[in-house]
UniProtKB/TrEMBL annotation:
Listed InterPro entries: AcCoA_carboxyl_beta (IPR034733), Acetyl_CoA_COase_Trfase_b_su (IPR000438), ClpP/crotonase-like_dom_sf (IPR029045), COA_CT_N (IPR011762)
Domain CoA carboxyltransferase N-terminal stretches: 69-330
Annotated source species: Psychrobacter glaciei
Protein name: Acetyl-coenzyme A carboxylase carboxyl transferase subunit beta
Zinc fingers (C4-type) by residue: 73-95
Length: 330
């Protein structure tokens, strides 16, 4: 019996010289103590066993994106850990795509010191008792639950380096950053605070437009906010708009386009009506980048397209200049 068992092994050793073949006579032992042609001890299933000439996949330890909460880049589909994303100001480290920032994160990012928040006393009403696929109050409570915010615009005042500023930011996650009467109220309050303290106002816009659930009341906010900005202009109080992706509709048609300076983030989509609506109206096919920030910069709608990493410096430099304050960076 032992002679019969030993024979195939001897033959194999003679043929391959240095390669030890598995003991094929023992079916339970085929996966153990194998030495592969590359010298590795396999201890693996046949599926993972290395084959000469075929590149072996390295079994690396789990990477950070596999062990930490991560976000997928919507442009290059890379997984980025949330920690890395926050440290990189929500810019993809692989393709430089600017991912959306929530309004609260945006304001805490821009302000070195937050002295207070405005407009939290305003709450949305439902005067039209508007119902589309869901009643308006239900949509509101869902948005509040999703974002942890009470409305689509957040206003804070504080310090940007050595400058006092009032800053507001739209949260696109909250019903598409739509402008209803509370957004109008908060924006006007921000403008009045800026006017009263004679400090600049900075607005980060990200909106789908007026909030249709409030009908005419939402459209009225266009006039209200425009009037508040006009009061700033008369008083010589600077107002800077940063257009982030996307800004559309009634917000573009009012407060987002009335700044003293319009900055935009790279590749932000900015327009009044969407591409499809314009094409159906003018019966023409429009070239793809026509509502991108870079295209609008070439055509004079936007003053500068600024990478998010340079945004705070740029806003500060502009405000210091407009306020006649010595630039602490210079
Ligand atoms: Zn990316």
């Amino acid at each position: 019996m032992s002679q019969l068992v030993d024979k195939p092994l001897m033959m194999a050793n003679n043929m391959t010289d240095t390669i030890t073949k598995p003991d094929m006579t023992n079916p339970n032992n085929t996966e153990k103590n194998n030495v592969e042609p590359n010298g590795n001890t396999a201890g693996q299933s046949w599926f993972n066993r290395s084959v000469p000439g075929i590149k072996q996949q390295l079994t690396a330890p789990l990477t950070a994106v596999e062990t930490e909460p991560s976000t997928k880049c919507s442009n290059c589909h890379s997984m980025i850990t949330n920690t890395a994303l926050i440290f990189n100001c929500y810019v993809c480290p692989h393709c430089d795509h600017h991912l959306p920032m929530s309004a609260r994160e945006r304001l805490h990012w821009i302000l070195d010191q937050v002295d207070g928040e405005l407009g939290q006393e305003f709450t949305a009403k439902d005067p039209l008792r508007f119902v589309d696929s869901k009643p308006y109050p239900k949509r509101m409570s869902e948005a509040q639950e999703k974002t942890g915010e009470s409305e689509a615009l957040i206003v804070m005042y504080g310090k940007l380096r050595n400058l006092d500023v009032v800053a507001c930011a739209f949260d696109f996650r909250f019903m598409g950053g739509s402008m209803g009467s509370v957004v109008g109220d908060r924006f006007v309050q921000a403008a009045e605070k800026a006017l009263e303290d004679k400090v600049p106002l900075v607005c980060f816009a990200a909106s789908g437009g007026a909030r249709m659930q409030e009908g005419l009341l939402s459209l009225m906010q266009m006039a209200r906010t425009a009037a508040a900005i006009e009061r700033l202009r008369i008083a010589g109080v600077p107002y800077i708009v940063v257009l982030t992706n996307p800004v559309y509709g009634g917000v573009t048609a009012s407060l987002a386009m009335l700044g003293d300076i319009h900055l935009a983030e790279p590749k932000a989509m900015i327009g009044f009506a969407g591409k499809r609506v314009i094409e159906q109206t003018v019966r023409e096919t429009l070239e793809e980048p026509f509502q991108r920030a870079e295209f609008l910069l070439e055509h004079g709608v936007v003053d500068e397209v600024v990478h998010r990493h340079q945004l705070i410096d740029t806003i500060y430099r502009l405000l210091a200049k407009l306020c006649g304050v010595p630039n602490v960076n210079a």
